[in-house]
Amino acid sequence: MGKRVFLIVLDSAGVGEAPDAEKFDDVGCDTFGTCVRSGRLCVPNMTALGLYNLEGTSFRDEQDGVIGCYAKMTEKSAGKDTTVGHWEIAGVVSEKPMPTYPNGFPQEIIEEFERQTGRGTLCNLPYSGTEVIKTYGKEHVETGKLIVYTSADSVFQIAAHEEIVPLEELYDDCKKARTILKGEHGVGRVIARPFVGKYPDYQRTVNRHDFSLIPPRPTILDVMKEKGYAVIGVGKINDIFAGSGITETYPNEGNTKNMERTLALTEQDFEGLCFVNLVDFDMIYGHRNDIEGYVNALNEVDIQIGMLMEKMREDDILIITADHGCDPGFKGTDHSREYTPCLCYGKSLKQDVNLGIRNSFADIAETIADIFQIEYRGDGRSFYSDIKLN
After folding, report:
1. What is the C-alpha to C-alpha distance for residues 109 and 180, in angstroms, rounded to an integer?
2. Rounded to the nearest 5°, which phi and psi values hold at 238?
């Protein structure tokens, strides 16, 4: 049986402010630290993998009997969003920041979008996703105009009620926006944000869909696919990479179901990478400053990580990381510029290896290339020789 790597991204689970946090107005952010200080965090499996042994965290509490290898990862990309975070994990550092729109999108972009969709627009400002439907949802339902908004990230978001704008139409509108938003206006993601319900009790649904740019050069996913390996995306992975390098995809159904899908995949015979994004930490809890919800979600996923570890075969390797921070106890509701954890485990790996502080998330991609003995020249440096048993 072939080698398998299960790469799980705890979306937004940072472990403390990055060295350049000041540039992002994020001094003092600490997602995992906030969760630890709640007094309710209970993650024995991540603890066993070395979470509390990470260097220089606010919650460091050196544990004995650690069975994993662990590192603190530094983001090199000029951004702190999902797209650049995942691209860097997959080997590609984004040196230029993607465009953001603190005052809304230029009129010519909005006019072209309205022309192509045949619908008017509302809002066109940075907004919280839950607040924007409270503010503009009623008018949207009455007029059929699309709610267009952005955030601190490089995103063009379109909110629409599923009974007013059918999902297929909303997705088609996003594709039209994606063709408009190129070049200097090439935002990282166009995001469909469907919602349901009656005013004022609107709720967003799980039918969100992201339309990303294709990474500017090959990622480890592209190289693995080209070499004939399976590259299975669970959750938002296919969206984040615009399908590039993916051989099989299971769309986002929330943390619990995404982990259930991953557990089911351990029963399948494949050789390659299973790449999983768990977005609930970010989307449902981090952006809403819900500390209790974030902690409960970490506790629940940790139980499923333990189940995954039990199911792992002799050659399987588990890597747990994050793509940025989104501290639910920090000011505002935006992503935060943080270090991320990297916890590795497998029967073919050493135990209790401190890999220190790494210079780039891209070290993960290089390590995966080494695991499969394939040539890949990304922007990182492999640590596989430091953790493999022989």
Report:
1. 7
2. -60, -40
What is residue 155's DSSP assignment? Answer: E
Which SS3 state, helix, strand or coil, does residue 17 take?
strand
Q: 175 vs 18, 110, 255, CA distance in Å? A: 34, 14, 26
Burial of 162 (0-12, 13-18, 19+ CB in 10 A): middle
- Is the backbone of residue 118 left (phi > 0), alpha (psi -120 to 50) or beta? left
- Residue 347 pLDDT: 96
Burial 107-125 (b: 16+ CB within 10 A, else e): eebbebbeeebebebbbbb
Domain boundaries, the chain: 4-94+216-387, 107-211
Tens digit of each residue's pLDDT (9 = 90 or more) over 341-360 = 999 999 999 999 999 999 99
CATH code 3.40.720.10 for 4-94+216-387: yes
- Which of the four CATH numbers 3.30.70.1250, 1.10.3720.10, 2.40.10.10, 3.40.640.10 does domain 107-211 have? 3.30.70.1250
pLDDT (tens digit, 9 = 90+) per residue, 53-69? Answer: 999 999 999 999 999 99
* Strands across the sheet containing 317-321: 248-250, 230-234, 272-278, 4-10, 317-321, 340-345, 69-73, 353-358
At residue 1, the pLDDT reads 65
244: which DSSP letter? T
User: From CA 289, how far away is CA 283, in angstroms rounded?
Assistant: 10
DSSP 286-307: ITTT-HHHHHHHHHHHHHHHHH
Six-digit token string for 298: 């970490």
**Average pLDDT across the chain, whole number:** 96
Predicted TM-score (pTM) of the model is: 0.91
- List, in sequence order, every residue forming a beta bridge with 278; answer none if it has no partner: 10
